[in-house]
């Protein structure tokens, strides 16, 4: 992937089957950058989520190609304690070279707006408690902690569920 430059344009669109492998690779790269090392199993856990997609949006840079994506899976696809009717924002990633440009926030807004337009009243996500950048973004955007922290099943690190009411977004 080329390095995105500040003068390029970002286009947001629905994800398609042809994007799956590129999104999985981006997810693995973003996780590697976040964690400082690659973790076996990250791609294998991510790939099946595309098969239960409720909403999937990709961000493309006019000069660099795909630089981010967000994927929400159907209600019931997350953890036992998740709200039963809430889609799960299971994957939200921005390429390491494109971070810091607001793409994560834009993707999150696009996902939540689309979920609201589809009639969902809440969404849930799970975040590593020590991923302070993500936690700050979610809290700034109206997400609130749900339940007690838990251990991430693959990484064995403390994680937290967050929930967002969407009813105020549906009128947009």
TrEMBL record:
Gene3D superfamilies reported in the protein's UniProt record: 3.40.630.30
Superkingdom of the source species: Bacteria
Entry-linked SUPFAM superfamilies: Acyl-CoA N-acyltransferases (Nat) (SSF55729)
Any one GO MF annotation of this record: acyltransferase activity, transferring groups other than amino-acyl groups
InterPro entries recorded: Acyl_CoA_acyltransferase, Bact_Acetyltransf, GNAT_dom
Keyword field: Acyltransferase, Transferase
All residue ranges annotated as the N-acetyltransferase domain in the record: 10-161
Stored PANTHER family: AMINOALKYLPHOSPHONATE N-ACETYLTRANSFERASE-RELATED (PTHR43877:SF2), AMINOALKYLPHOSPHONATE N-ACETYLTRANSFERASE-RELATED-RELATED (PTHR43877)
Protein name: GNAT family N-acetyltransferase
